[in-house]
Amino acid sequence: MTTEHLPVPSPSIPTPSAPLPGAPSASAGESAAGTPEILTGSGAILRTLKLLGVTDVFGLPGGAVIPLYDELMNQDDIRHILVRHEQGAGHAAEGYASSSNRVGVAIATSGPGATNLVTAIADAYMDSVPLLAITGQVFSTLMGTDAFQEADIVGITMPITKHSFLVKRPEDIPAAIASAFLICNTGRPGPVLVDITKDAQQMSAPFIWPPKLDLPGYRPITKAHGKQVQAAAALLAGASKPVFYVGGGVIRAKASPELLELAELTGTPIVTTLMARGAFPDSHKQHLGMPGMHGTVAAVLALQEADLIIALGARFDDRVTGKASEFAPNATIVHVDVDPAEIGKIRAADVPIVGDAKDVIADLTVAYRDAIATTTPDITEWWTYLNGLREKFPLGYSEPADGLLAPQYVIKRIGELTGPEGVYAAGVGQHQMWAAQFIKYERPNSWLNSGGAGTMGYSVPAAMGAKVAEPDRVVWSIDGDGCFQMTNQELATCTINNIPIKVAIINNSSLGMVRQWQSLFYDGRHSFTDLNTGHGTAMVPDFVKMADAYGALGIRVTSADQVDDAIKLALATNDRPVVIDFIVSRDAMVWPMVPQGVSNSFVQYAKDHAPTWEEE
Q: Composition bias, kind Pro residues: at what positions (predicted)?
């Protein structure tokens, strides 16, 4: 086991070979006399965060973190944003991280405060979001006695974190937080928990900086094996039906420029998953769109019929593959991922490449140039077929028969009037899919959503976090009437802290995606999916009145001729949050669709082109 001095990297991505951001010298922890400064554990938390480059945190105080909050109010280096629910703190930290490539930080107290963070931690784990969760714990002398507000949060979160630390001594705080920061933001990003007892926060110890890290076995691989990259390049040069299957790892690795260069060099078709929207420009002629259950027909069938799939930072999720045993039956698989555990987990890789997407794509570009010196690739027929699919099956929608707004039109206009420099944070369900389909994404970090976990309630706090990280961008929360009711209390946080997000409620008065499945697979038995928030209902709650109560601008839109004016008013209003209640048809469905559990070859373009599905 080795011990090394903590490296100090750039503020965004720490690596084991560089210093931690903001730690210029050991003097950061020394007094004028050259001896280590004595700080309380709480002081050590704040000093460490400052030296790591953290400027914003989201949290909610409680008994086990009172010492930390007592010192928070006496400093100006770190902005603390008081949320109204700990889940909001977690999702806000996620939105902060996902929009800016910085580490998001959430703080909660012990017991229920910590367990309220669990959903956001699980969400960050599934979507590889660098989240640092700091929780208070009861006095170390009381641990294990079922003390008031005690919960074993380290044990609870062990399956959904990259690592969890329990700190019982103030002198251990700098190393624990610095280690957590390093772990959550290197290799495959993800959440790390640091649980600190109340007595550790209260007691004092010398503050030593930089601290020594003891992380035996943690050595993320970023540089891929050269022979594997050459093998992938040779396959690409010789393929007649290749596809780049691009996942969210490309965005986490900040590899979009490298991807664009490789794509244009090779002429290969690109598909971007739900987590990778914006990794490659939608406007680019090689982009086929999103694959998967609600992907474009061209993207779905490109993967299904390919002879070579190069997966870049993607994990062969079931929503992309459909029935895994029947996915891309004729394809050779090159799988690039920084996490070796993902390679071969779902689909065996013919050429496994472990490494950081940014480095691997750059190396693959060089190797491909060498490979085509002796081979002339020809994918003309492949493109003829794919372009035919694009022409025959473009993304579109039908106007609702009930005369109400088409939700697709609303979302499309939000994207068109806001533009590609905006940030769009979606909830989960039909509106999430429509936002992924009908907004055009031209840059990474512009699309935020809960992909792996599918967390209702993600949108509003994630948008709030994104606006804190990117205050000069327009930030939209595109939410459903069901999702919105789970975390809308964070509108109070936005109003009080001058975080002017825009919220578009796609109000179909129901849990829309569940209703769609009930319509298609359960003979239209809409069991407990009506929410009574929209057209022809009691409208409880009234979202416009709710917006007013929270100090936001509330607008209701019921017809197509009102849509643009409402969006333009929201874009012009920057002194408070805006909530637009778009009353849309509850019968609108998300198409195309691949039913769960069947081959992607059965992708259906629209309801009237669907077979009879007996079960999902």
A: 8-22
Show the tokens assigned to 301. Answer: 């069938």
Cα torsion at 93, 94, 95, 98 (round to 10°)?
Answer: 130
Q: How far apart are CA 175 and CA 471, in angstroms?
A: 31
Task: Tell me the pairing of strands 553-557 and 475-480.
Answer: unpaired
Mean pLDDT of 265-286: 98
Using an 8 Å Cβ cutoff, are 30 and 206 in contact?
Answer: no
Structure tokens at 465: 């976090």
- The first and second tokens of residue 571, run together, are 């874009």
Catalytic residue among 513, 539, 546, 589: 513
Q: Are 354 and 217 in contact (CB under 8 A)?
A: no
Q: Is 412 a catalytic residue?
A: no
Active site residue: 86, 305, 342, 490, which one? 86
User: Is 615 designated active site?
Assistant: no
The DSSP-derived string for 202-266 is HSEEEE-SSPEE--TT-----SPPHHHHHHHHHHHHH-SSEEEEE-THHHHTT-HHHHHHHHHHH
Q: Which residue has the tokens 């499945």?
A: 517
**Pairwise CA distance, residues 446 & 203, whole Å:** 43
Backbone phi, psi, residue 523, to 5°: 55, 35
367-387 pLDDT, tens digit per residue, is 999 999 998 999 999 999 999
Determine whether 486 is an active site residue.
no
Quick one: pLDDT at residue 476? 99
Token digits of residue 85: 């629910």
Tokens representing 277? 């929207």
Structure tokens at 144: 């294990």
> With 90 as the cut, is the pLDDT of residue 157 above it?
yes
Residue 31: is its pLDDT beyond 70? Answer: no
- Residue 101, by phi and psi: left (phi above 0), alpha (psi -120 to 50) or beta? left
Query: What pLDDT is stored for residue 18 in this prediction?
Result: 40
Instruction: Return d(Cα 114, Cα 153) in angstroms, integer.
Output: 7
Helix (H/G/I), strand (E/B), else coil: 609:
helix
Given a contact cutoff of 8 angstroms between Cβ atoms, the answer to whether 351 and 331 are in contact is: no
- Give CA–CA dist 595/466, Å, rounded: 33
Tokens linked to 366: 């060089």
What are the C-alpha distances in Å from 555 to residues 539, 547, 573, 579? 14, 9, 12, 6
Q: Phi-psi category of 324—alpha, beta or left, where left has phi over 0 and alpha has psi -120 to 50?
A: alpha
The residue from 148, 158, 264, 416 that is catalytic is 148
Per annotation, catalytic residue among 58, 94, 137, 198: 198
Residue 436's alpha-carbon distances to 283, 296, 354, 447, in angstroms, are 14, 11, 29, 8
| Strand locations in 508-547 (E) | none
Q: Residue 611: its pLDDT value, please?
A: 42
Query: Under 8 Å CB-to-CB from 513, ≥6 apart: which residues?
Result: 428, 429, 430, 433, 590
Q: Which of 30, 149, 286, 399 is catalytic?
A: 149
- Whether 445 and 278 have beta carbons less than 8 Å apart is answered as yes
Q: What is the pTM of this model?
A: 0.94
341 CB contacts (<8 Å, ≥6 apart)? Answer: none
Is 148 in the active site?
yes
* φ, ψ (nearest 5 deg) of residue 130: -75, 95
For range 45-65, the mean pLDDT: 98
Confidence of residue 428 (pLDDT cuts 50, 70, 90): very high
Q: What is the pLDDT of residue 26?
A: 43
Q: Is 149 a catalytic residue?
A: yes
